[in-house]
Design goal:
This protein is α+β, with helices and mostly antiparallel strands. The protein has helices spanning about 1-20, 30-105, 110-115, 120-130, 150, 165-175, 200-205, 210-225, 250-255, 275-280, and strands at about 135-140, 145-150, 185-190, 235, 260-265. Helices cover about 60% and strands about 10% of the residues. It has a five-stranded mixed beta sheet.
Length: about 290
């Protein structure tokens, strides 16, 4: 385009020079031809000038778009790096939580290995499990009552089903019996390894850890409602990290969805708990504060 523009300029100059040299010696027809050619050259020059201006505007627009795309790409790269950092931090936090749970679990004595349950209590728990074989299992050696959560809770819920509350109240009656005095209760929730995907459930329980702990709390609430002293009860939630059997089939995953109720020696969890609990009984209640 620049070459054509230069050619028009040269042609116009040559035409003007020719007119100057020939002066009045040119015929009228020849003069008109030259005048017409000059007007054509002028029109072509103006057209090319317009095209050049349009191209310059288009070039600026394209450059602006390139700048916008580059800025957007830079922002997205920064977001990716930030998300990668967040993911790494979350992974480290999860590993720390797993380690903390492992340490806490190892600190809880296994009842079957440390102390035998009184015969009367052992018999009562065996009879309780035999009464509800579809939902309850009892491990006499470890002193643990296992509830299958598929019957105890609705899908994605941590609220004990209303038609299963009587079973937990019945267990509470055993725990509050004279034979069970001297034992505390640790309620432990477990899930399978399938992640929570339903949005409504995930809003309440972001991970299987949250769900397992919430279900342990649900069972604890029913036990305390049934008369078990709150001072005797604690909860834990392992999520999918303590399967009873490998999560290799739907049947196995069903076994892993469970809540376990351990009977452990009184104040076995936390050596200083006994003195602290006794001290709390004689202290006035703390004033309520907003949380």
């Amino acid at each position: 385009m620049n070459q054509r523009f230069a050619f028009v300029l040269r042609a116009s100059g040559a035409l003007a020079l020719l007119l100057f040299l020939t002066g009045g010696c040119v015929s009228l027809d020849k003069y008109r031809q030259l005048e017409f050619a000059e007007r054509n050259c002028q029109a072509e020059r103006e057209r090319l000038s317009g095209e050049l201006a349009t191209c310059q505007v288009q070039n600026r627009d394209l450059q602006n778009k390139i700048d916008e795309i580059q800025a957007d790409l830079t922002n997205k790269n920064q977001m990716i790096r930030a998300l990668q950092g967040d993911a790494q931090t979350a992974q480290q936090t999860m590993q720390q939580m797993v380690s903390a749970y492992e340490q806490l679990a190892n600190s809880i004595p296994r009842p079957g290995a440390t102390v035998a349950l009184p015969a009367e209590l052992d018999t009562a728990l065996k009879e309780f499990a035999a009464k509800y074989p579809d939902m309850v299992q009892y491990d006499s050696e470890r002193g643990v009552v296992k509830f299958g959560t598929d019957l105890l809770f609705d899908l994605g819920s941590a609220d004990v089903r209303s038609d299963k509350m009587d079973e937990l109240r019945e267990l509470a009656g055993i725990i509050t019996s004279p034979a069970a005095q001297g034992f505390d209760v640790v309620v432990v929730g477990h899930t399978d390894n399938l992640p929570i995907v339903k949005a409504a459930t995930k809003a309440k329980f972001p991970t299987n850890w949250h769900l397992s702990a919430a279900r342990a709390i649900g069972v604890m609430d029913e036990l305390t409602n049934g008369g078990v002293s709150s001072e005797r009860v604690g909860i834990m939630g392992y999520g999918e990290f303590r399967p009873a059997v490998p999560n290799t089939s739907s049947e196995n995953r069903q076994q892993n969805r469970r809540v376990e109720v351990y009977l452990v020696p009184e104040y076995a969890v936390g050596a200083e708990a006994s003195e602290a609990a006794e001290a709390a009984k004689v202290q006035p209640a703390a004033p309520a504060v907003e949380k």
